[in-house]
Design brief:
The complex is a heterodimer of chains A (307) and B (139).
Chain A lengths: L1 H13 L35 E2 L13 E4 L5 E4 L2 H9 L8 E4 L9 H15 L10 H9 L1 H4 L18 E4 L3 E6 L4 E6 L18 E7 L2 E7 L6 E3 L3 E2 L5 E9 L2 E9 L8 E2 L3 E4 L28
Antiparallel strand pairs in A: 1-5, 2-3, 2-4, 5-6, 6-7, 8-9, 9-12, 10-11, 12-13, 13-14, 13-15
Chain B lengths: L4 H15 L7 H4 E17 L6 E7 L5 E7 L3 H6 L13 E9 L5 E8 L5 E4 L14
Parallel strand pairs in B: 3-5
Antiparallel strand pairs in B: 1-2, 1-4, 2-3, 4-5, 5-6
Classes of the chains: A alpha+beta (307), B alpha+beta (139).
């Protein structure tokens, strides 16, 4: 059965392999690493400050704005304003059809994207290993994710599903982690202090986080979670006894991020999330507010399909 | 530059890991991608919100009855990146035509495939749907 699923996934991926990575809004992992020295702060610590990874896009490919003339000529623009200027200057005709946010998905269709991503995560997604008595629960949650996955109704994704920070501000006493995802921020002390006795008993999406330096690696220990958020899309739940260790290390102009989940109540072994390598983003684009998440769709979902 | 299978997996994982939280997904669960509806009406409101942008169109039928249709699209971040969230594209009070995947539950909701702007230009948004013909006057 598993072989058949993998086969289907491979066939699906064979149809989706022609991804034009040059049009992606998020740089590929590690490929942008430059041989640069790691900057340090006045106290000798590696300076994690900066903007990391791609821009604020919604993912899924951009390709900018394209205008397709009736004769098939394609004009490509990074931004709609450039298209407007070309239109005003007569370099593009008003008959050209505009294509915005043309995705790189299979058949250019985000439904296929969801299906492919679903298969990919189930088959290749580095799943956490649950104790056998929880396998049916994971499968139930996966099959009913439209209702059970609280991010679908705009709940916070929480740590560690939130992923690495998109911007870091480092002070001698704290790191301030900023995420464009739902305007999330975290302020984490880096002086090696223990968890706060009261705050760490809260049950929150972000938990109680404390940091310490292990050589040049910033290690963040997080406890005090709720059991509402998930670890990942395919029904990967956790308990409120979860502990997460995040490790951040700057190597030149690349930020290495790794999170490990300890949840012995339900997991057979600690789960290491796929590491992320984020290039320093020097593009200078504004770090904008992420519009709020408001769900109007769940009540209209008549099937369980979500990929 | 084009990547092979490994590249697709890596890029896909990155996109998914970073994008899943703002993208709502399950489009097919709410909208039938094979059932298209064409709606022409006055744009009354645009909400640039996650997880889906929403446009509101007042559509008048043959009897004169006005129905407010809600048209959803992809998340706002991608549109903002390329400037389509600007007010010069979607102007409240003007007439737009939306070609959309119809809501499965029969409610006046759709998932946008193509907009026809007030001056007749067409703009395909996010989806595989390729409107026939090009530009002004094309159906």
């Amino acid at each position: 059965m598993k072989g058949a699923v993998v086969g289907v996934v491979l066939l699906s991926l064979m149809a989706v392999v022609s991804i034009d990575a040059g049009a992606q809004s998020r740089p590929a992992s590690g490929s942008a690493a430059a041989p640069a020295p790691t900057p340090r702060t006045a106290d000798g610590k590696p300076d994690l400050s900066g903007r990391w990874g791609g821009g604020g896009g919604g993912g899924g490919g951009t390709g900018g704005v394209r205008a397709v003339e009736p004769d098939g000529t394609v004009h490509t623009f990074e931004h709609y304003s450039e298209y407007s200027a070309a239109l005003a200057a007569g370099r593009v005709s008003a008959n050209a059809k505009i294509i915005g946010r043309q995705p790189n998905y299979r058949h250019g269709n985000n439904v296929y994207s969801e299906r492919d991503a679903g298969f990919t995560q189930r088959a290749f997604g580095n799943p956490p290993l649950y104790k056998p008595e929880f396998w049916e629960r994971v499968q139930y949650l996966d099959e009913n994710g439209n209702k059970e996955d609280t991010t679908f109704s705009c709940f916070p994704p929480g740590v560690p599903r939130l992923g690495p920070p998109m911007r870091i501000v480092q002070t001698p006493t704290d790191v301030i982690l900023l995420y464009q995802n739902r305007n999330t921020w975290r302020v984490i002390p880096t002086d090696g202090r223990p968890h706060d006795q009261e705050n760490s008993q809260d049950q929150t999406f972000m938990g109680d986080a404390v940091g310490r330096w292990d050589g040049d690696t910033l290690v963040i220990d997080v406890i005090g979670f709720n059991d509402v958020s998930w670890l990942g899309w395919p029904g990967w739940f956790h308990t409120n006894n979860m502990r997460v260790e995040e490790r951040l290390r700057r190597e030149g102009n690349t930020l290495q991020y790794q999170a490990t989940v300890y949840d012995p109540d339900v997991l057979l072994e600690p789960w290491q999330m796929d590491p992320r390598a984020l290039p320093l983003n020097t593009g200078g684009a504004p770090f904008l507010e992420d519009p709020p998440c408001l769900d109007f769709d769940l009540s209209h979902m008549l099937t369980r399909e979500r990929g | 530059m084009r990547y092979g299978l490994a590249g697709a997996l890596i890029v896909g994982a990155l996109l998914w890991g970073g994008a899943e939280l703002r993208a709502h997904h399950a489009v097919q669960a709410a909208f039938d991608q094979d059932d298209h509806v064409t709606l022409t009406g006055v744009l009354t409101k645009v909400l640039w919100i996650n997880p889906h942008v929403r446009w509101f169109l007042d559509v008048k039928d043959a009897s004169g009855t006005v129905t407010t249709w809600t048209i959803s699209g992809a998340g706002p971040g991608g549109f903002r990146d390329i400037g389509i969230s600007g007010r010069d594209v979607f102007k409240v009070g003007q007439t737009y035509t939306a070609i959309a995947a119809r809501a499965r539950d029969g409610s006046p909701n759709g998932y946008v495939l193509t907009f026809v702007l007030p001056d007749g230009r067409k703009i395909d948004l996010w989806h595989q749907y390729k409107s026939e013909g090009t530009g002004a006057g094309a159906k």
